[in-house]
Amino acid sequence: MRGPVVAIAAAMVAATVTHEATLARQVQPPSPERFFGFRIGTDGELARYPKILEYFQQLAKTTDRVQYKEVGKTTMGNPYVLATISAPENLAKLDRLVEINRRLADPRGLSADDARKLADEGRAFVFLYATIHSTEVGNTQALTEIAHRLVTENSPYIKQILDNVVLLVVPSQNPDGQYLVVDHWYKTKGTPFARVYPDLYHKYVGHDDNRDWFMFTQIETRLAIGIQNQYKPVITHDMHQMGSGGARIFVPPFDDPYDPNIHPILAQGQAAYGTAMASALVAEGKGGVEWGNRYDLWTPARQYMVYHGQPRILTEIASVNLADPIVNPAGKNVPFGPQEARANFPLPYTRSDWRLRDIVDYGVTAAFAGISHVARHRTMWLENFYKVHADWVNWKGKPYAFVISAEQRDPFETSELLDILRTGEVEIHKAQAPFTAGGKQYASGSWVIKVAQPYGAFAKTMLERQKYPDLRLFPGGPPKAPYDVTAHTLGMLMGVQVDEIAEPFEATLVNVTKAELRGDIFPLTTKGAYLVPPESNAGFLAVARLQAAKVPVFRAAASFDLGGRTFSPGTWIVAASPESTRILKELAVTTGLPVAAANQPLPVDAYRLKPETRIGLWRGANNMPGGWMKWLFEQYGFNHRLVSSADFTGDPASLYDTIVLPEGTSRDTIVRGLDPARNDKEWSWAYGVGEAGWKKLAEWVRGGGTLVAVGSAVDTARALLDLPIEPVLPAASRRGRGAGERPESAPPDQNQVLRDAFSSPARLDAVLRDRVIDPTTLFYCPGSLLQNEFNTAHPVGFGMPAAWPVFFESDQAYRLKPGFEIQSEVVARYPSRGPILQSGWLLGEDLLRDQANVVAFRVGRGYVVTLGSQVDYRTQPRATFKLLFNAMFHGPSVRVGASELARLTGS
Ligand SMILES: [Zn+2]
To answer: Which chain residues have CB less than 5 Å from ligand 1, an ion?
Structure first.
């Protein structure tokens, strides 16, 4: 009896499943309009992110063309989602299709014939994502309509797409920002408050969340890179919005310059894809399409894909006022944008209004045109993907390889650098024996990165020096501004010596796939002290942990000899205890931190760090450098908090030993801050402290506080305390900051020069004759690595090499003025001879000769350190973190003699 019952039950289950499946397929998914309760793009209305995820889930439930997957959680714990859309037959064999992509991406041992067969069998993967910049809301909205059409329509057009393409859709690349921006938009409806979210829309890095694509510091970047590395798409389309005034949409091809490491097939591919989009838009009568302007293809900070076999597809659509329509401020009947057709702008836009629905319409047309182009040329895209990687694998050019010597000043950052390369899927080899390359001896254990490998493009661009072309608006004229920075040489940024080796060499190598970190097994001790050399950034991880565990920490005030070894100035001295042993042992293993033990009195004076040094970070609202710094301080575990305006109603000395002013902190940030009339109490921390607070800040410094200022904040500190320095460079031409795309134009003053030049033929003649720009006063440095010399005996220079590049992005250099009450010491300066530019672009090098960058001041009983260049820029120049960290901890420290040190350390 039992058998038949089971059989019947099984049959019933099967019948139910089939029935449900049939039902499911018959249930048409709701249109976005029905689901959200308004037509997507309706003036003033935005679908919220969680509801959008529900919509994609609904599509996945009711059709067999969508797979929905939560890939991970964001910085603030929200779901980061991937929807995979294709024909059901493709989704059923997704693993096989991915396997084909992976084979084409690493074509070693694959013949061209076999590659062609695989391209024939494979499907082209297109990765499409929106709203990495959260106020550019339109494209996430548009994706709901794109998805709906793909899963419900049965036309030959859609069928061709579904059969040939696997679409990877990330509805938002910064989900947290969608919550913040859209929720704020609704919360402020009908109030006097500003409707655009007033702060960073990514917890740490704000708008810079798309400048992180080579250091991979943020969770969302890592999630996207995970998708790239897993599926290996042939296209990534990054959907943005730009300013409202000019063209209605930008599509590729891009403007000059290109990173020469971008394979020509990819350079051509972005043109083909972009042209398909432009053609479709123009064919639909959508005016204002522009290409070949503004946006360039230089820095990997924005473009992981071009070093991984794919063209970069960027669309930038003109913005509205978040969701509210805009009318041309020039007049009701004045159309937006240029009204003359040009080769790269074939159809002017004729209306004087622009609405969210327009953004959606342009976005939908552009996306479909691109995807459909790939669908029609599927095998070509897959074959090109193969060819790009085959060319890199067969690289015969120079250099042959990069070698990273096993002997580095900072094993921690060396390991971090190798981890970045590995995340970018670069193969790393390790030498099993000593070898010679480029005429230099390398120890066993040194690392070799050959250029001839599938992602050789990524390795090469990250490890070599950038030679940015000297682009001018006209010969001898002002520089043509790059869209972003010009240098990204990883070794220089991270304080790691990387050697470029032109010619092939022999070495016994093994492929290493994992970091192998282990400091010297250090002698454990129960009395005396541990000594930690100051060169590794991991020393500051130790400081944070030791301070949290209430272990006293000292720094040697000078170099000293002990047991036949010389220790540098700034060597960390830590009393031995079970607690300090545990902390240092763990860091030795995880960061390679070298630790020595001393059982006899140390023949040196020292600085005793203030226990649990209290650090204040003046982040300010919507200041990206402050956000990056917040992330950085959290990574190191420093005892810090954000400075709030409320702190200045009381005594700041009861809260802070050190206050850091990041780049972008102006007098206005401090005194006025956010306007209380436009921002409710939630933002009171970012209100200004008023003139009284400004005075109190100065008094706090003079009374013993430590103030550390970076970049443009140096000028704020100078004004606050009348510091005896003055800027030496012509008014810095700065890029825009905060929300919104960075302006693409040349520095305004030079633009004005240009406009004047073209105002009349006579003027132009004069200008060309005089060359307008006097090369002896022109200074331009839009994000490059510049050589500095350091006073390593100075507490702010502890642990630095004698010379190393700093990151300089439209920053300032200083000359000292005589100070009567304020003592000043130069810690870092630009060299008086030899090349200053190490990587990137610099005009006016001589203006920097022998000028000061980092200066320390005694102000009353307080301490001030000004760091003129952005030593922590986007947390990328890790080689110079030490300058910032040293300053933060040194200011509040006290000097103790050798005898007291011996007593305190128990040695
Ligand atoms: Zn954007």
So the answer is: 133, 240
